[in-house]
Design a protein that fits this description.
Layout lengths: L1 H9 L3 H22 L1 H4 L3 H25 L8 E2 L1 H24 L3 H24 L1 E2 L2 E5 L1 H23 L4 H25 E5 L12 H55 L3 E5 L5 E4 L1 H7 L3 H5 L4 H8 L2 H16 L7 E6 L5 E8 L5 E7 L1 H15 L9 H18 L3 E9 L1 H8 L1 H19 L3 E6 L2 E7 L2 H13 L5 E3 L2 E3 L2 E9 L6 H17 L5 E3 L2 H23 L2 E10 L5 E12 L3 E3 L1 H11 L2 H17 L6 E5 L2 H4 L4 H12 L6 E6 H6 L1 H13 L3 E7 L5 H7 L4 E4 L1 H5 L5 H17 L2 E4 L5 H9 L4 E2 L14 H5 L16
Helix pairs in contact: 1-8, 2-4, 2-8, 2-9, 4-5, 4-6, 4-8, 4-9, 5-6, 6-7, 6-8, 7-8, 12-13, 16-17, 22-24, 24-26
């Protein structure tokens, strides 16, 4: 070891040794970098030779730089061919080592390649020493020489094993360093093993390469190695750039694909136009909405070309002019929106948004369905859904236009208010679906009969017609409309007969404003219905007076609830076998302080129209129960329930609360209902009646036989009593038909276990017939007129008494 140290420090120049080490490391690092491109590049063999040359030249340069710094004390020369051959040996060994390392890339293969490289380094070294010319000769220390070769081979094996492992800057640095150590250790140990023995007999060499020439050759090798280093750095930089560009290109391609997919999945069409007017982006939806050829759009045409293709000449001129003016005004940040209908029926909403560079983005939204829906909503808002006729709002607009035209140009028009007679009975008996179908058929008939007149449905079974002309034309039209109802309609398998009542108001005769005309036509309709229905009436000023009278009557009726001018009168009901008093029917009466006694036939229908009947019905029920609870005799009291009362969802609870409030026993209360109440909603009605009957309240059917489905009603609910309508009783003795009907009702009651009450008994002949036919109870003027309960004080406070026919119970007091 001392020999090796002495050789390094005494026989070599220090800075030359350092230079040799640096050059060796640079050549190894460059060679390893170049060798990594062998498999990654399609020109692999070239890169293999380049890497072999780099490290081979580096080994050779390291050796001869060391030789330049070597001073054995004699003049040295170098034989050219042997010196050149040593360079080729180094290059060949390095190339072979790299080829072997890449043939089977593993650490063991790398170690084997390192041994090959180590042998090559040793061969180059000793071949280079053999080419040295000096006045003497070399002697060798065999042990040290073998140690040099072994150390060089071992370090080379370690360095190549590191190189073929995981790649990276650190691995490359370590491999280059270990290979540099291998070359340097082998060189300096081998030089330490050599001794120069001067021989005066040998002349100083005159031939061969001088040290200056060798230095030039070494400089040339260094230039090549540095060139390779520069090439390697440049290529590595280019590779990094290419990798970054490839990554960015891939990301850009992915983003482009994503953007294309996003644009093509949009419900909106989109076109982007640059500042020069060229189309840069056009998605699939725009192609479809605007019928644009794909080939034309791929060529990125001008937007003018798009307009010329997809729009008519007029549309193109207007759209292009609008867009150009809008852009020239520089309305940056402002959005322009307009709608356009295309020839293919589509309606597009076009939204234009300016871009900062002077271009714009235009989106196209198909709003065809939305516009159709809006149009349908607008139509439904102005038309009746059931019949398709104009509704009240549209009729009002039509009338307003007609009146404005009359005011401007003259002329006349008529407003006809129409109301179906008997529609409610059809609706109640056959159901709402049949009622709807009837309304549709009536609407179609009115439209045909009205001709040029405007027909509208105002609601329910009310219609209106607006016609040109005066009273004569309106009357003729009314007669045509009424004649339409001479024949029954076929609805749901039934032949249904309804009538038509019409009220007429004329313009300008009866006014030039819509509301007064409506009101006066309605008054005329009210008069037509009051005078027998199935006819028409033209408004007269007297109808206004009657309407005013009716409004005053309505006001007074509302006030009557607070003024205590309402009262109950009671009509007796007697046993048909014994004549004994069994109860009373409570009847509402109104005594006005100025008008006097107002007939129920006048104020009860009015109360139904204005919605006051429920309040009145509750008052009657509470007052009747309060009065009956004070009677000493446990007589029953019968109270009528109106259809409006029956619609209350809490009717059973309300009746029970009144009974509890007044203290009347439920079995003394008899509620009279008409079959129309039940037919309207049989399931609900029967449920309510069962609950009332479950409380112990008696239920009787009033006016039996006058409706559409009495037998079905009896089957649905077990009534306590049937009341024969007074119209049948009044005809007893005038013809056989009434007697047959009365007998049938009495027989039906007995068969069903129901009591029967005959209303309207006014003659002894009627009483005699009913008694012979075993009628259970009777009621009528023959037994007593409706009077205040005070007139029957003796009857309600004394034991049951027989009623003498024709005498009246009032006399008993």
């Amino acid at each position: 070891m001392y020999r090796a140290f002495a050789c390094l420090t005494e026989e070599h120049t220090a800075w030359v040794v350092a230079l040799a080490a640096c050059i060796c490391w640079i050549s190894c690092a460059v060679a390893l970098k170049l060798e990594q491109r062998v498999q990654a590049h399609r020109h692999g063999p070239i890169w293999l030779l380049a890497s072999g040359f780099s490290i081979g030249a580096g080994i050779w340069s390291t050796h001869f730089i060391g030789m330049l710094g070597y001073d054995p004390g004699v003049v040295l020369g170098y034989e050219p061919r042997t010196t050149l051959l040593s360079l080729l040996v180094a290059i060949a060994a390095a190339t072979a080592a790299f080829l072997l390392a890449r043939a089977t890339p593993s650490r063991w293969a790398g170690a084997g390649a390192g041994l090959v490289l180590g042998i090559g380094i040793a061969g180059m070294h000793f071949l280079g020493i053999a080419g040295v010319r000096l006045p003497g000769h070399f002697t060798w220390d065999p042990a040290l020489a073998v140690t040099a070769i072994a150390a060089g081979c071992l370090l080379s094996a370690v360095g190549m094993a590191i190189h073929v492992g995981p790649a990276g800057p650190r691995a490359r640095f370590a491999a280059a360093t270990v290979l540099t150590l291998a070359i340097a250790v082998l060189h300096f140990l081998a030089m330490a093993a050599a001794r120069v023995v001067p021989d005066p007999a040998l002349a100083i060499p005159q031939l061969g390469l001088a040290r200056g020439v060798l230095a030039g050759g070494i400089a040339a090798m260094m230039a090549v190695i540095l060139a390779f280093a520069a090439l390697t750095l440049m290529l590595d930089h280019l590779r990094r750039i290419n990798v970054a560009l490839a990554r960015q290109s891939h990301m850009l391609r992915e983003k482009t694909l994503l953007l294309d997919a996003t644009l093509d999945s949009m419900d909106q069409g989109l076109i982007m136009v640059d500042a020069g007017g060229a189309v840069r982006v056009c998605n699939e939806r725009a192609l479809a909405l605007l019928d644009l050829p794909r080939a034309m759009m791929q060529a990125q045409p001008s937007y003018r070309a798009v307009l010329r293709h997809e729009a008519s000449r007029r549309e193109r001129r207007l759209t292009d002019r609008s867009s150009r003016a809008w852009i020239e005004r520089g309305e940056a940040g402002q959005t322009q929106v307009h709608e356009r209908a295309r020839p293919n029926g589509l309606v597009l909403e076009i939204r234009t948004v300016p871009l900062a560079d002077g271009g714009f983005v235009r989106t196209f939204t198909d709003i065809t369905e939305r516009k159709a829906a809006e149009a349908e909503v607008a139509r439904l808002a102005r038309h009746d859904v059931l019949t398709g006729l104009p509704n009240r709002a549209l009729f009002h607009e039509t009338l307003a236009r007609s009146l404005a035209d009359i005011a401007l140009r003259g002329g006349a028009c008529a407003v006809l208010y129409l109301d179906l007679d008997g529609f409610k009975s059809v609706n109640d008996s056959l159901g709402h679906q049949a009622g709807d179908e009837l309304l549709r058929r009536v609407a179609a008939g009115l439209r045909r009969a009205a001709g040029d007149g405007a027909v509208a449905r105002l609601g329910g079974d009310e219609f209106a017609v607006l016609s040109d002309g005066g009273a004569a034309e309106a009357a003729a039209l009314a007669e045509r409309l009424i004649a339409l109802f001479d024949s029954p309609f076929s609805v749901a398998g039934h032949r249904v007969g309804v009538g038509l009542s019409i009220g007429i108001a004329l313009a300008p005769e009866h006014g030039m404003d819509a509301e007064p005309l409506y009101r006066r036509a309605d008054l005329a309709l009210y008069r037509a219905k009051a005078e027998g229905r199935g006819t028409y009436r033209i408004f007269t000023p007297a109808m206004d007076e009657e309407a005013e009278e009716r409004r005053m009557l309505e006001r007074d009726l509302r006030q009557a609830l607070d003024d205590d001018t309402l009262s109950l009168h009671y009509q007796p009901q007697v046993d048909g076998y014994t004549g004994a008093l069994v109860g009373f029917e409570a009847l509402l009466r109104w005594t006005h302080p100025v008008r006097g006694s107002v007939a129920p036939s006048v104020f009860v229908p009015l109360a139904e129209e204005i919605g006051l009947i429920v309040v009145l019905g509750d008052w009657v029920l509470r007052e009747a129960c309060r009065e009956a609870a004070q009677w000493a005799q446990p007589l029953k009291v019968a109270v009528n329930l109106s259809p409006r009362q029956f619609q209350k969802p809490d009717l059973p609870e309300s009746v029970l609360a009144i009974l509890a409030e007044t203290g009347l026993s439920p079995d003394r209360l008899e509620l009279e209902v008409t079959e129309s109440i039940i037919i309207n909603d049989m399931a609900r009605a029967v449920g309510i009646l069962r609950r009332l009957k479950g409380y112990g309240i008696r239920i009787s059917m009033d006016d039996f036989g006058t409706g559409y489905a009495s037998l079905a009603t009896l089957q649905a609910f077990p009534f306590d009593k049937l009341k024969i309508d007074r119209s049948f009783v009044a005809q007893l003795g005038t013809g056989p038909q009434a007697a047959v009907i009365v007998r049938a009702v009495l027989s039906l009651g007995r068969s069903l276990g129901m009591g029967v009450v005959a209303e309207g008994v006014e003659t002894h002949a009627q009483m005699k017939f009913l008694t012979e036919e075993a009628c259970g109870e009777m009621q009528g003027y023959l037994f007593g007129k409706p009077r205040p309960i005070a007139d029957y004080a003796a009857a309600v406070g004394a034991p049951a008494v027989a009623v003498a026919a024709g005498s009246g119970l009032a006399a008993a007091g």
